[in-house]
Amino acid sequence: MKKSIKWVLTSLFIVTLTTLQAQDSRAEKIKKDAAGSNKVVDKPKLDSNKGTTTGTVSKGKPVQAVGTTNQDKVENSKDAARKEMENLRKEYSNKIRATKDPKEQARLEAEMEEKMAQFKGQVKISSSDNLPNASQKLDNIKKEAQGNTKPTNPKEEAVVAKGKPMVVAKDEKVSATQAVLSDKRNNLNNSKEMLNKAKAKVAASRALLKKQKEEGTLSKEAIAGKEAKIAAAEAKVKRLEASIVNAEKKYNEKETKLSEIEKNKN
Amino acid sequence: MKQITKLFLALFFVSAILSCRDTKREETELNTAIEEVEKMEVEIENVSNDLNEATEALEESLQELDSI
After folding, report:
1. B56 shares contact with chain A (CB less than 8 Å)
2. Set of chain B residues whose Cβ sits within 8 Å of the Cβ of A167
3. What is the dihedral of CA B32, B35, B40, B43, to 10 degrees?
4. How many Cβ pairs within 8 Å bridge chains A and B?
5. Which of A117, A149, A226, B4 maximizes the CB count within 10 A of its CB?
6. What pLDDT, in 10s, does the model give residues B9-50?
7. CB atoms near residue A203 (< 10 Å)
């Protein structure tokens, strides 16, 4: 074999190895960045007195911080902004759920939407929408925020497009599901409180009916009617109890699975 | 062909195949994880709906108890 062919083959081999190595290191870097961006915004501070968010990313800036030379920084700040918005929404959802007064709920909703709009920049969410609609709009805002950033270096964009979306999509899915799970746990706690109150109320109703029976002021039909109502309420209490047990079990299972998936990402 | 060239070629093909397999495996793993999380979301939503239905039903029953 000619000497030149040998050289060509050897150089081809070296080039291939170098390319593979570079791809690997890029993928590693992307994974680290994705993990890092999640860790940075793990605990953003929410100042409930002033109603403003403070953290690693300042309000209004993240989506506008278009870095033309450092794509990773831009991606990190976008992730952070998304996280901040998610946390803000979660915080307000909890407050709204904890409040029974519809006026107070409406006020909190309006406040949340206003802050979200401020956070995004100029986007305004109608205060008449309910909470699920508001979260859908927030998703749209996030998409817009992603769309607004135009990297000027196409090579960098190509690298990001190849490696990052899958990992980031997975991480985002995991954190979003964790947030949903946390919301559902709050609901579960509310249901538990309600169950205790319902049990007390059923017991009180039974005692009252017993007293009325002893006094002999009620007809047989009235007694039967009240007995039926109490029995129906007891059946519903049992149903809710079963649902709570089931929900608790399922939530624990899902939480364990999610943390396993989250650990596997690194 | 000399032995060394054969060795280089073999190494080249092996590394290329392994690299492709690794990428494919990672992609599959990520897809599986995403699908799993999506399934979880659906299950959580179902459980939550069931809980809400039970809570609403109990609320109605409790309102009826008020008239006792």
Report:
1. no
2. 30
3. -130
4. 125
5. A226
6. 888 888 878 777 777 788 888 888 888 899 999 999 999 999
7. 12
Distance from CA of A123 to the nearest CA of B (A): 28
- The one-letter amino acid at A175: S
Interface residue B15 vs chain A (CB under 8 A): yes
Nearest to A116 by CA among A148, A149, A138: A138
pLDDT digits (tens, 9 = 90+) for A202-236: 999 999 889 888 888 888 888 899 899 999 999 99
Nearest 10 degrees: Cα torsion B13, B17, B23, B25: -160
SS3 A265: coil
Cβ-based contacts of A243 with chain B (< 8 Å): 50-51, 53-54
Residues of B in contact with A223 (CB under 8 A): none
Q: How far apart are the CA of A49 and the nearest CA of chain B, in angstroms?
A: 32
CA distance A148 to B44: 33
* Residue A134, both tokens: 């508001």
Structure tokens at B55: 């809570």
Q: Give the burial class of B7: count Cβ atoms within 10 A of its Cβ; 0-12 exposed, 13-18 middle, 19 or more buried.
A: exposed
Secondary structure of chain A: what % helix, strand, coil (to 5)?
80, 0, 20
Which helix (H) or strand (E) segment holds residue A52: the answer is: strand A52-54
pLDDT per residue as tens digits for the range A242-261: 999 999 999 999 999 998 88
Coil, helix or strand at residue B27: helix
Dihedral through CA A62, CA A66, CA A72, CA A75, nearest 10?
40
Q: Which pLDDT tens digit goes with each residue over A136-147? A: 544 554 454 444
